[in-house]
Write a structure and sequence with these properties.
The chain is an alpha+beta fold. The chain contains 13 helices and eleven strands. Strand 5 and strand 6 form a beta hairpin. The chain is globular, with a radius of gyration of 20 Å. The structure holds 2-acetamido-2-deoxy-1-O-phosphono-alpha-D-glucopyranose and magnesium ion.
Length: about 375
């Protein structure tokens, strides 16, 4: 198997014992690699980078290496004041010294250290977990907030620029595949109408950035709840993983993504839309954790857009899933027909629930800002 032959090309001691596919990511392929020597066991994460999504994998790795090196130094420098051992994956070099291995077909693979004794969840059901997720994101953003963005490459142009996704959606709508799908499904037409009714707000963050109200900073880009690692022994959040999308952006994309994934207890793949909602108790808990860490480095203007961020990122992900469904599922991995359509239905139902709770959410944000 290809992954097995690649697994031994990194700087890790021991012999390969097992390699298993893990994770629920919609983009990369992820494996857990177990190696042993007589006296020790070593485990690490092996990933094949999806080159349909990331066209410059070497730049993705350069960003990841630079940001993690910086973050590790901050974690060590602040360890004495911390209430936990913060962790962050380390890029394990290949035997030839590169940060990745390229296979015979031109595929890019990377190795990352494993965050020991932790687990991650597809959904959150208790407020304590939401607080920990908020702390993990806020802490990560805070320790990279002083990393200079001009040293980061834009590895995914247009990522989280909602007006761009809308423009691409409009292009997809003109294709025969999309027209056919809209023609046969009343549910698709309902979603298209849902989008049309919200065209006016898609630029809420980008226009604030253009006006100079909110700055670009280094961000995670994909802090969904499955990427937050919780310590199995202490219950505390200790790390964030999946650092592909670290690049300059608005902190709002991260906050919105953490909330839309963490505060909908029904999860991304729910089939009963009645169960999809923005749970205010989870929201309050996540906000408390996030602002505990992030309050001091965020500006007042940044704080004032946090509600919009949540509404927008739920909407944006729905738009991205729906666009992909109409285009014939070319971006997000799927395991069954209609999966991207259903994912879009869920995000739009969540967006509606967020809209209904606007005043309560603003009150909560006010309280912790
Ligand atoms: C993708 O890598 P993964 O599966 O965690 C996507 C995110 C979406 C997420 C939705 C690079 O994340 O933007 O929010 O799916 N990542 C990319 O599940 O597009
Ligand atoms: Mg990801």
């Amino acid at each position: 198997m290809l992954a097995e032959s690649i697994a031994m090309k990194f700087e890790v001691p021991g012999q390969l014992v097992a390699l298993e596919a893990i994770g629920s990511g919609n983009v990369n392929d992820t494996y857990r690699v177990v190696l042993r020597t007589t006296f020790s066991e070593e485990q690490y994460i092996l990933q094949r980078i999806n080159q349909k999504v990331f066209q410059h994998p070497a730049l993705v790795m350069a960003n990841m290496k630079a940001v993690t090196d910086h973050a590790h130094k901050r974690i060590l420098a602040e360890a004495d004041q911390a209430d936990r051992i913060w962790q962050l994956p380390r890029v394990i070099p290949a035997i030839n010294g590169d940060d990745f291995v390229v296979d015979e077909m031109g595929g890019y693979w990377r190795a990352l250290s494993m965050i020991a004794s932790t687990t991650s969840y597809e959904r959150i059901s208790i407020p304590e977990h939401a607080t920990e997720a908020g702390r993990v994101l806020g802490h990560f953003q805070s320790i990279i907030s002083d990393f200079p963005i001009d040293q980061l490459q834009d590895t995914l142009p247009g990522f989280h620029i909602t007006p761009e996704y809308l423009r691409k959606y409009d292009q997809v709508l003109t294709q025969p595949c999309a027209q056919e799908r809209l023609g046969i499904s009343a549910e698709s037409r309902r979603l298209a109408k849902f989008i049309d009714e919200r065209r006016g707000f898609v630029d809420v963050l980008e226009s604030a950035r253009e006006r100079g109200e909110i700055p670009l900073r280094p961000i995670h880009g994909d802090p969904k709840i499955t990427n937050v690692m919780i310590d199995k022994l202490t219950g505390k959040g200790t790390s964030i993983v999946d650092l592909d999308t670290v690049k300059p952006g608005l902190i709002h994309y991260d906050f919105g993504d953490a909330v839309r994934s963490g505060c909908n207890p029904a999860g991304e793949e729910a089939t009963d839309l009645k169960e999809v909602k923005l749970d205010l108790d989870l929201f309050q808990a996540l906000v408390e954790g996030y602002l505990f860490e992030a309050k001091n480095f965020l500006t007042g203007a940044e704080k004032s857009y946090l509600y919009d961020a949540v509404r927008l990122i739920a909407f944006e992900l729905g738009l991205r899933f729906f666009k992909d469904y109409l285009a014939g599922n070319v971006y997000f991995k799927t395991s069954h027909e209609g999966q991207n359509l259903n994912r879009a239905r869920v995000q739009f139902a969540l967006c509606e629930s967020i809209e209904k709770r606007e005043s309560k959410m603003r009150e909560i944000l006010e309280k912790y800002c």
